[in-house]
Amino acid sequence: MRVAVTGGCGFIGSAVVRHLMQRTSHQVLNIDCMTYAASEESLAAVSSDPRYRHAPISINDRPALEKVLAEFQPDAIMHLAAESHVDRSIDGPDVFIQTNIVGTYCLLDVAHRYWLKLEAEKKTGFRFLHISTDEVFGHLAPEDPPFTEDTAYDPRSPYSASKAASDHLVRAWYHTYGFPAFVTNTTNNYGPWHFPEKLIPLMIINALEGRPLPVYGRGENLRDWLFVEDHAAALVRAVECGKPGETYAIGARQPRSNLDVVRRICALVDELEPDPAGPRERLISFVSDRPGHDFRYEIDPGHAERCLDWKAEHDFETGLRRTVQWYVDNRSWWQTLRKQRYDGRRLGVEK
Ligand code: NAD
Ligand code: TYD
């Protein structure tokens, strides 16, 4: 297959590109305009392969998109490019509307016009996979069953509202134009190359550097954690055998409270890099809560597991151990980020 991936230099997109390059024989076009969240290094292992090419363009740039799709002639598009951090969406929603909603519209429209011109066989096999989040479903109370593909949308942050809007556009293109698109909604990911403004990498790095570990509120909010390489495997299965018009809710059945996550990170960092000053749990600092903080997300992945013949290989313990070890072994990556793009508040220093 010839697979175009948008956002392929981001956290999940780079795991998808590495998976495609290292475990399949597909050709890959990575469409990524390199925002603050992009990392070229995350693709260093595969970027010199002739099966890979990078188009450093925005999904909002219609002429450039038309040109690269016409040249590359994809059989499938995996759309991951987005603004992805809830706290940033609260401070500055504009770019979330521009990228996640308007950008998805632009990409959909260009992809639809490209698809209309394909010859019959290629047209029938073409797929557009839109990668979304479980945050579009709103949040759960402790006693609620997990989200499924049938859960009604109820987004509550500018980020999740922008992703919900993009999901609706993608489904509208399927229903209205017969465009062979489908959607995945996934739980929180973690793993290597995760930009250190998100909970898990931020806590690992701060723990390694002896800085405060800023837990919002009382740390009781729950998230359901999926190791990023398991997610990449599910997405590649989906693009290879998923059905147009379908939705796949992807997760690993690993819900944890934020405080439990931070405590486990402290224990692993203590084990791998003991601190003479004492256990890292001493660094936990409860800070003011995120406005409109969603209490709990959790996905029932049964439908996706059955339809895609996929199951997460890592439970939270094995995935987190690999992740902490990766941040211990790859200090130069995040230390360079801190120097080049460091913005104290984002890395928790002023929280
Ligand atoms: P990320 O922020 O790490 O990466 C986003 C990538 O998109 C970056 O490389 C960036 O340069 C690129 N990008 C942004 N705007 C662009 C534009 N206009 N044109 C081209 N490229 C652009 O995000 P991520 O965590 O890898 O998330 C990828 C996708 O998965 C997103 O759509 C996100 O909503 C979804 N998702 C993420 C999670 C999670 O836990 N991180 C969970 C479920 C779903
Ligand atoms: P985050 O990684 O931002 O993902 P999301 O908001 O998309 O779930 O946050 C995960 C959880 O961790 C969320 O409940 C907010 C919380 N959190 C903290 O307690 N402290 C922090 O510094 C950050 C970034 C997040």
From TrEMBL:
Return the Pfam families for the record: GDP_Man_Dehyd
The record's section on InterPro entries has: dTDP_Gluc_deHydtase, NAD(P)-bd_dom, NAD(P)-bd_dom_sf
What cofactor does its activity depend on?
A: NAD(+)
Q: Does the keyword Flavoprotein apply?
A: no
Q: Which reaction does it catalyse?
A: dTDP-alpha-D-glucose = dTDP-4-dehydro-6-deoxy-alpha-D-glucose + H2O
EC numbers, comma separated: 4.2.1.46
All copies of domain NAD(P)-binding, residue ranges? 5-323
A GO molecular-function descriptor: dTDP-glucose 4,6-dehydratase activity
* Protein name, UniProt field: dTDP-glucose 4,6-dehydratase
Question: Which UniProt keywords are given for this protein, alphabetically ordered?
Answer: Lyase, NAD
Q: Which organism is it from?
A: Bombella dulcis
Fetch the NCBIfam families from UniProt: dTDP_gluc_dehyt
Top-level taxon in the UniProt lineage: Bacteria
Family statement drawn from the similarity comment of this UniProt entry: Belongs to the NAD(P)-dependent epimerase/dehydratase family. dTDP-glucose dehydratase subfamily.
